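Name: Phage protein
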Amino acid sequence: MKMNQEFIVLRRKETGSFLKSFKDRGTLAYGVEYTDTLANVLFMSLEKYEEDKMQFKSMAKMFGCEVVKVKATYELTYPNGSEVQEIKIQPDKLTRNFLRGLFD
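Structure predicted for Phage protein:
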């Protein structure tokens, strides 16, 4: 089974590494950590980026980064190499789960 995902990350202009974490130090200074591994980066959904685009661009500029859109495809397999099948929920189970959610 393949899954696709798109998200926004910050990439450092000087080194190409990605923003992993940042911490406000209580003044006008920040502690920043970068990584070369996309699995460990801070990321934001495209929808949230569109809502807060100006703030995100300002943050990128402050950290010497650029805004990058990542398009990722994941291939899910079991450890033995066989393909993972998508789980299909039966309509009656969806209704039951919905009703349970109302009364929980």
